[in-house]
Amino acid sequence: EFETESTKYLISIKSGPNWGNSSQKKKMQDNFIKAKKVLGTSGGINSKSITCIEGCCYGYDAKPEKGTHIKLCGQDFWTFISNGNNELYSDIIEPIGKLADEKNKELIELTNAKLNLFTAEFISEYCNSDGSINWALFVARNSGSKSSYHSN
């Protein structure tokens, strides 16, 4: 939450616009209503309006008015919490994107290496000398009975 001279903002921060199911979203709306009621009757807040914000770190919502609150997503949310800095969203996202790209290359290399190991192990365990899969062995090892139970 934060305040300006005339408004107290209550903010629920979510990862993105599709963060929860209908009951979770209803719970958030109920919490907003309850918080507004409590703050409105607790004294000292009466001189300020209370605005509830559902803030999503990415994405967009073309219709932010939700009745109980305002839903701000992506650039709209970052601009709101930065007091009008329209570039904050890209200032934050661009370095994250570059780092993600670097890490993604490393992840691809590690994934490919592990895939090669799994493939070699599979060939060694379940393939015939001509490279074809020995399905009888594969099925027996993965689905064959391992118990002493035998029905009559």
Automatic annotation (TrEMBL):
UniProt-listed SUPFAM superfamilies: Restriction endonuclease-like
InterPro entries: RE_EcoO109IR, Restrct_endonuc-II-like
CDD domains: PDDEXK_nuclease (cd22345)
Pfam families per UniProt: RE_EcoO109I
Residues that span the membrane, as ranges: none
Domain of life according to the entry: Bacteria
Ranges for domain Type II restriction endonuclease EcoO109IR: 1-104
Protein name: Cytosolic protein
Organism of origin: Salmonella enteritidis
Lineage, highest ranks first: Bacteria, Pseudomonadati, Pseudomonadota, Gammaproteobacteria, Enterobacterales
